[in-house]
């Protein structure tokens, strides 16, 4: 059974930083892409960042690329999202996702993804 477990969420003040972590277990194959998404109350889930299997390529939503940094060890199925200068509008549930290895390896940061975590809550107060 594949499980993705996110951690590191919490309640912070505007301007603070948070470091979200995600660990995937139960995968029988390696991963091609690991990504982060978020969903704010009343809004659709949106892409934040992704990293490829070698760590050589990353992608970010335009609105977050100056504040958020994704890193990880895809071979170990772990990924981290460092979030700086947090704003109240960053309040959301943050989800980790993984795309398992494909025959032809292509970096597709926005999906599709095969497995998702349950999410970790981030609340930023003003």
Would you kindly provide a written description of the structure presented here, covering whatever features stand out?
- It is a single chain.
- The chain has 126 residues and is an all-beta fold.
- Helix content is 0%, strand content 52%.
- The protein has strands spanning 3-7, 10-13, 18-25, 31-39, 46-52, 58-60, 68-73, 78-83, 92-100, 115-116, 120-125.
- The strands form two sheets. Strands 2, 4, 5, 6, 9, 10 and 11 form a seven-stranded mixed sheet that branches. It has a four-stranded antiparallel sheet with strand order 1-3-8-7, with no helix packed on it.
- A hairpin with a 6-residue loop joins strand 4 (31-39) and strand 5.
- The radius of gyration is 14 Å and the shape is globular.
Question: Notable features of this structure?
Answer:
11 strands; mainly beta; globular; 126 residues
Global mean pLDDT:
94
Bin the helical content.
under 10%
Instruction: List the uncertain runs.
Output: none
User: Which structural class matches the secondary elements?
Assistant: mainly beta
Number of strands: 11
Short structural summary:
The protein has strands spanning 3-7, 10-13, 18-25, 31-39, 46-52, 58-60, 68-73, 78-83, 92-100, 115-116, 120-125. The chain is an all-beta fold.
């Amino acid at each position: 059974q594949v499980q993705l477990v996110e951690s590191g969420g919490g309640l912070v003040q505007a301007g603070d930083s948070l470091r979200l972590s995600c660990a995937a277990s139960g995968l029988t194959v390696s991963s091609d892409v690991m990504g982060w998404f978020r969903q704010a109350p009343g809004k659709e889930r949106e892409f934040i960042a992704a990293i490829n299997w070698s760590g050589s390529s990353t992608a970010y939503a335009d609105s977050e690329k100056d504040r958020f940094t994704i890193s990880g060890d895809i071979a170990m199925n772990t990924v981290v999202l460092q979030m700086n200068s947090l704003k109240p509008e960053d309040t959301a549930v943050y989800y980790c996702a993984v795309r398992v290895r494909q025959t032809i390896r292509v970096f597709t940061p926005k999906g599709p993804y095969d497995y998702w975590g349950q999410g970790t809550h981030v609340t930023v107060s003003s």
